[in-house]
Design goal:
By secondary structure, the protein is α/β, with parallel strands linked by helices. 37% of the residues lie in helices and 22% in strands. The strands form five sheets. Strands 1, 2, 3, 4, 5 and 6 form a six-stranded mixed sheet that branches. Strands 15-16-17-19-18 form a five-stranded mixed β-barrel. Strands 7-10-11 form a three-stranded parallel sheet. A hairpin with a 4-residue loop joins strand 16 and strand 17. Bound molecules: iron/sulfur cluster.
Length: 467
Amino acid sequence: MASIYIETFGCQMNEADSQYIADRAGAAGYSVADRAEDANVVVLNTCTVREGAERRAYGRMGHFKSLKSADPALKLVVTGCLAEQDRDRMARLAPHVDAIFGTKELMQLGDALVGWREGFAESALSEERALIMPLGGAADCVTDAFSSLRGYVTVQRGCSYYCTFCIVPHVRGRFDHRPVHEILAEVRQRVDEGAREIMLVGQTVNAYRDPAGEADFGELCKEVARIAGLERLAFISPHPKDFTKEMLRQLSEIPQLNPRVHLPMQSASDPILRRMNRKYTRAQFHDRVQWIREYFPRAAITTDVLVGFPGETDQDFQETLDYVGTGVFANAYMFIYSRRRGTPAAHWDQVDPGVVSQRFARLADVQNAVTRSYHDRAIGREVRALIQGISRKDRSKLAAKTLDNVTLIAPLPSDYDERLYAREPWLDVRIEAAHVWGCSGSIVRRAERFADGGVTLERRLINLLTA
Ligand code: SF4
């Protein structure tokens, strides 16, 4: 049987696109391989939002060159934002890549998979591939048996906000909202296929507007929540400017909504927010925090912070540090500003890299302490989480995500079987230790459905012994 291996970098938009590629591949008769060495087609779904992501993508292309040399029948495909931005350069730098598809060419990628399928039907994979040693590097995400448990549904493509540091509008274009009926149909399909959690994704997801009607993001979510069988609902990534009190009120009435709101701040300094073209002030951002507290008193608020944006002074940085130090964010994705070709900020005077590193370390110290104390509060509790699969750092452990997006790690249960745990993917984990990256503990129960009581693992083992 022909097989496909998909590596994904970057944001959930790319994960949604990878899910589409996996669907098209499945419909064309491919199975999903969890190692590139076992696949006829290798897809790299790339990101270009930071220089590091770009370097990693080219590194992975270099890595797969050895596989391609050992087996010229392998098809190496690159898609995603870097493919969109760098098409000509990529063709020059990585001539062993068979096909490059931009972010708006996923249908063509799906069609190409159908076309290649026949050629793979008869051919066996070259045995020389097994001799290739891994060269290191890893994707953010690899499509596997657990991927379909989280259904990523794109509600809008592109972004019209043009933050001065961001490459997204330049590679993905302006807002292009999908009609409500299309979104609902895709959610229904994902739920029918076994998705336990639906993640609505868009670059500024709460700016959503139904092109054929009046529905905004709050109304869309209420419609989605009415779909029979939907267990959990989440969304990423909203823009602070687009939250209204009315929208938050509507969202708070959705029982399946996960208790986590991601609110990307970037900076707490007004001059920097203005130069970033973020369209809100620190005070307006803080209003959104208060509204979220009012309507979701138990939700985790998480954020993104950018350090070293061009023109950031010590005073600007201190304002961000002070705001983060109030402990408002359960977690934060902290980044050093990365100069992106084609964006306005790339042409402005840059902050000294040594200064930026020091600021970043100070910010990380402050936020990590807050995050660690947020995780500390879970010690001793049993928490329900959706399985992610075998931990990438320790193959003897399972990884899962809680509803508030905390990573849990627990030893593999003695009855672990991939198919069984994909069928019964909700894990109740007793939290025993807290870390900055998440929590660790032991799995005490697993359940097929979020609302189920679940099966206690010890009891099951006793039943088996006494049967
Ligand atoms: S809102 Fe700003 S940071 Fe977010 S995708 Fe649009 S331009 Fe980029």
